[in-house]
Amino acid sequence: MKWHPQVLISAAICLAAFFHASAAFANGLTVFPLRADLSAQTRIAAFNVKSGEATPTLMQVHLYAWTQTNGIDQLVPSDDLLVGPPIFTLPPGQTQLIRVGLRNVPTSNRETTYRIVIAEVPTSRLSGLTFAFRLSMPIFVSPPTPRGPRAEWSVDKIDALHIRLILDNAGDQHIHVVSLRVVTVPDQASIFNGSAVAYVLAGERRTWVVPVARGSVARSFRIDATIEGGVLNPPAFVKMP
């Protein structure tokens, strides 16, 4: 299998803003909430787009099927879900409700994932052509009898200065990693402690590249992962092959 190493783990800090209950973009537009969860019991959800701009804003909505391959997100246009309205003009100070809903009762034995993209359509104004802003939010469709995520960790050596952390999600629902703490075993020397924002979809893999001190001989590590809503238990103890 060909590996696709991710960027150095410290670069993930810039993604932390995505954990707020709402997100502002496009000179005063706000979207909330930032995710939707659908199931046989909850077949409809909604996103709200609120304008803080001084002029009307033309918005367009797109739906994509969301998968991952070796930790790389793949988005393909989809009409699996009902989404509306697909295009609208948002007056100043007003809020537009965007509904998403299931066309059929879920039958997959694994969580199905999508992303809804809400985008500002560029228009010509007195000051010239405006920039188009877009925000992508996840939609999770639960399987009929979910068992939940299952984290399986491993580690390997890249070179004298880097190791690779590998998280395989063997469960049927996603894992949303927020931060990681990595220490050596048994001496408890800290390798990394900080933000590591990433989704790991059901049945998929995510990797992080972590720098180590030159000359380090550590081969065993403890990984503590914080996830959305709590801590991923139990901690993982892994050893390089």
Architecture per CATH nomenclature, i.e. the level-2 architecture of the largest domain: Sandwich
Helix coverage percent of residues? under 10%
Strand content: over 45%
Shape type: elongated
Cα(first) to Cα(last) distance is 17 Å
Number of domains: 2
Radius of gyration: 21 Å
CATH topology of the largest domain: Immunoglobulin-like
Global structural class: mainly beta
The CATH class of the largest domain is identified as Mainly Beta
Largest sheet: 6 strands, mixed
Mean pLDDT: 86
- In sequence order, what are the helices and strands, one letter per element? EEEEEEEEEEEEEEEEEEEE
Number of helices: 0
- Please report the total strand number as a whole number: 20
pLDDT under 50 segments (min length 5)?
A: 1-20
CATH superfamily of the largest domain: Immunoglobulins
Outline the structure in words.
By secondary structure, this protein is mainly beta. It folds into 2 domains: 20-141, Immunoglobulin-like (Sandwich); 147-239, Immunoglobulin-like. It contains no helices and 20 strands. It has strands at 23-25, 29-32, 36-38, 44-50, 57-69, 72-77, 81-84, 87-90, 95-102, 112-120, 124-125, 128-129, 134-141, 151-159, 162-169, 175-184, 190-200, 205-211, 220-227, 230-239. The strands form 5 sheets. Strands 3, 5, 6, 8, 10 and 13 form a 6-stranded mixed sheet that branches. Strands 1-2-4-9-7 form a 5-stranded antiparallel sheet, with no helix packed on it. A hairpin with a 2-residue loop joins strand 5 and strand 6. It starts with 22 loop residues before the first strand and ends with a strand. Mean pLDDT is 86; it is low at 1-20.
